[in-house]
Amino acid sequence: MKAFTRRALGALPRPSLPPFPALPLPPLPRPPSGALVRASVLELLVLAGHTLLYPMGLTQERRTAPGLTAPPRHPGPAGAEEPGPSRASGSPNATDTRAPRLPAPAGGRGRPPVLLLHGFIDNRSVFVLLRRSLRRHGHHQVEALNYSPLTCDIRSAAAALAERVEEICGRTGHARIDVVGHSLGGLIARYYVQRLGGHARVRTLVTLGTPHSGTTAAPWLSAHPVVRQMRPDSPVIEELSAPAPECGTRFVCFWSDLDQVVLPPATARIEHPDLAVVNIRVSGIGHLALPVHGAVAAEILRMLDAREANADAGEAGSVA
Prior knowledge:
The protein contains 8 helices and 9 strands. The chain is of the alpha/beta class.
């Protein structure tokens, strides 16, 4: 019986199954381009150098009035030094060092002060080379602001920036200043200019690798409140896209095509119908190299020294 059953089943036609389609193999990742490799090596070198300088920028820098010098010192009878006379003592040639001396407003004859604003979890040491370049080319009033690494809100950081700008204007006698911000620092400065009335105090705002339209990089850091505010759908980014017809500040935005922190890289541009914007593409370097690269510094100087703002938004040029 069992043999018969096997023979009967063997005589039945076997169902034909359709051929199983072969799944295509995923394409192999393309090897990184030579430009990306060079930019990555430069990023590592910049990171190593900045790590050595980082402790030097942990504290706020001392604020001094422009042109203020130390009082002359004269040897005392026992060889000790005593401070020289001040203006309060009646000497017509003495200098009063007890209070900052305010110069007359520049009135177009002098360059406005420049305030440098660092990026996320950074400090003023990132601007060592840029500050030196600015001072070498005639920008003698260059300062840097350290905002707290524990900052959890762009709006509150922008309010603190407003207080510092007012202090600089009162101390130097200038009605307006220039601001250079790297990464998050540029976003804080833009919020101050656009949303807190800072356009009345800031002549030119230069941003370096700032996520003006948000960034999708490092999703694992979204637990940090400031990182969430730098996402494309955050309320802060939406506020910055609101109309700003009264804003007279000129914006100069440097963005790198190899930026691995601001993704996609073009989000470091400003596209806003009410703002006077110059977007400058930087080729061949990454995010960390923007504030230390010599070609970028030269273009920043050229933009700060420009007599008239270029109101045409769009691609103004590139830096290689």
